[in-house]
Specification:
Layout (H helix, E strand, L loop, with lengths): L3 E2 L5 H16 L7 E10 L11 E2 L1 E14 L6 E6 L8 E4 L12 H11 L17 E7 L9 H16 L13 H18 L7 H8 L4 E6 L4 E6 L7 E11 L3 H18 L10 H13 L6 H26 L7 H13 L6 H12 L4 E5 L4 E9 L3 H14 L6 E4 L8
Parallel strand pairs: 1-13, 5-7
Antiparallel strand pairs: 2-4, 3-8, 4-7, 5-6, 8-9, 10-12, 10-13, 11-12
The structure holds adenosine-5'-diphosphate and magnesium ion (MG).
Adenosine-5'-diphosphate binds next to strand 7 and helix 3.
Length: about 425
């Protein structure tokens, strides 16, 4: 059973595609567009922790979304958009003044939402001119798989954010060889608002931070309580390792409702415990005391709250242990933490599914150091940390297992920790 791979485009290839698609839509007259791009992300560990003020540890994928963009003539707020991934939508045209929560449907909300969010009061540092963000023509092309839990949505938002940052001369992203993390945190915040308020998806902040603030050769330790980050060296190739990403191609209904339900359970539990977020629960004793309080509630949902909280608190601790191992140069020892993360997400948080469990179990029995589901769950992707020479056999074993189980063939990506939006 041979595995199907999704290669990452080179920067030149992505730029050429976006420019060709732009020319096909808008012709070659007028101001030439410039190409910006931003990566999808994969989270190493720390799942469903972002909206609990916790820690997560994403890396940027080599797979990126490319946008060819040019500003509209001065004074115009008309935006014209097309995407190679949404050929049926044709060319969408809208006035920025008409964009806001509830006014835009579909994929263009992720683009228009970023322009809207950057124009909101307080989005930019004092002295920056939000009115410099006007209309634009943009065409998108991407090799980030859609809806695979690899954050094609944040890749799209972040590519637009850095494009508008440059065309409006906001100066937030900084030069490619010396990114400005504080400015990028503001761009990420605008992307989160775009996704939450305009696209209407209640995601936490991990995806946008990863796409804008990650660095090549590093994992991004993101503290979702205050938005601070630390770049943790993570040079897989130097350690003879590879990160195999398995897109299970599984799509399950009710995903949005389930995500919102998990958030609500966590927020209700934190309130019940008199805490701002579950991050405030510390240590084994603190966890035991919190779980005892929740269990004593007697409500029908008490058992569910106990398990959800146990996942979040132990998962945050696993991120800390994972980072400690990376800091100590012990990357070969992180496997058991990945395995424990998966078990917790499957049993306590209940966001795994048959396809994710099969990918993870098969990866491990085929020799992976560790494996886990990644992203929100209910389908989407899993990751496996493998010795570089085991990439092909592990992928083949997973493809064969899906075939035997009568499941849709999964696809595979390799993800060295790659560069952020730029
Ligand atoms: P994920 O972020 O895990 O890939 P989401 O459901 O959050 O999944 O985001 C997928 C949505 O983002 C798509 O349905 C589409 O609306 C939008 N999107 C992402 N990439 C593109 C693209 N290249 N062109 C147009 N829309 C895109
Ligand atoms: Mg997304």
């Amino acid at each position: 059973m041979s595995a199907r791979w999704i290669p990452a485009w080179t920067g030149d290839e992505g730029a050429a595609r976006a420019l060709a698609a732009f020319a096909a839509r808008f012709g070659t007259d007028g101001v030439a567009p410039t190409v910006w791009s931003a990566p999808g992300r994969v989270n190493l560990i720390g799942e469903h922790t972002d909206y609990n003020g916790g820690l997560c540890l994403p890396i940027a994928l080599p797979h990126r979304t490319y946008v060819a963009l040019r500003p509209a003539p001065a004074g115009s707020d008309v935006v014209r958009l097309a995407s190679a991934q949404e050929p049926g939508a044709g060319l969408v045209e809208m006035h920025l003044a008409d964009v806001g929560p509830g006014t835009v449907d579909g994929w263009t909300a992720y683009v228009l939402g970023v322009a809207w969010a950057l124009r909101q009061p307080g989005a930019l540092p004092t002295g920056s001119d939000a009115s410099a963000i006007g209309g634009f023509d943009a065409v998108v092309d991407s090799c980030v798989p859609y809806g695979a839990g690899l954050s094609s949505s944040a890749a799209l938002e972040a590519s637009v954010a850095v494009a508008l940052d440059a065309t409006a001369h906001l100066g937030l992203a900084g030069p490619a060889d010396d990114p400005d993390d504080a400015g990028r945190a503001l761009l990420a915040a605008a992307c989160v608002r775009a996704e939450n308020e305009v696209a209407g998806a209640p995601t936490g902040g991990m995806d946008q931070s990863a796409s804008l603030r990650a660095r090549a050769g590093h994992a991004l330790l993101l503290d979702c309580l205050d938005g601070s980050v630390r770049q943790v060296p993570f040079d897989l190739a130097a350690d003879g390792l590879a990160l195999l990403v398995i897109d299970t191609r599984a799509e399950h209904a009710l995903v949005d409702g389930q995500y919102a339900a998990r958030r609500t359970t966590c927020e209700t539990a934190a309130a019940r415990l008199g805490l701002g977020t579950l991050r405030e629960i510390h240590g084994t004793d603190g966890l035991a005391a919190a779980l005892a309080t929740l269990a004593a509630d007697g409500a029908a949902e008490a058992d569910i709250a106990v398990r959800r909280v146990r996942h979040v608190v132990t998962e945050i601790a696993r991120v800390e242990e994972f980072v400690a191992l990376l800091d100590a140069g012990k990357v070969h020892e992180v496997g058991p933490l990945m395995d424990a993360s998966h078990a917790s997400l499957r049993d306590d948080y209940e966001v795994s599914c048959r396809e994710l469990d099969l990918a993870v179990a098969t990866a491990r029995s085929a020799g992976a150091l560790g494996a886990r589901m990644t992203g929100g769950g209910f389908g989407g992707s899993a990751i496996a940390l493998v010795e570089a020479d085991a990439v092909e056999p592990v992928a083949a074993a997973i493809a064969a297992a899906f075939d035997s189980a009568g499941l849709t063939a999964p696809t595979f990506l390799l993800s060295p920790p790659s560069a952020p939006a730029g």
